[in-house]
Specification:
The chain is mainly alpha-helical and 78 residues long. It is built from five helices and two strands. It has a two-stranded antiparallel ribbon. The longest helix has 11 residues. The two termini are 30 Å apart.
Length: 78
């Protein structure tokens, strides 16, 4: 069996595009909070791309209420 070890120095980053998505949809953070039933501080962290661990339930709710796909919310950059 061949054991491969990869050294990952620069493996890229996942960006949360909530700010751009809300601007495109014409939806405010406050309205999104009301639609999702969540608090403003949580949405602000996603809006400012300041989340260290993404909650998949939150991403699913964002996709549902904004009628978009996960690739509209999350973006991988190398």
């Amino acid at each position: 069996m061949n054991n491969l070890v990869y050294v990952l120095e620069n493996f890229g980053k996942i960006n949360i595009r909530l700010k751009e998505l809300l601007n495109e949809k014409g939806v405010s953070r406050n309205k999104l909070c009301n639609m999702m039933g969540t608090n403003y501080d949580l949405i602000t962290r996603y809006y400012n791309n300041k989340v260290s661990r993404v909650d998949l339930e939150i991403i699913a709710k964002i996709c549902f209420v904004l009628d978009c796909s996960i690739t509209d919310v999350l973006e991988y950059t190398n």
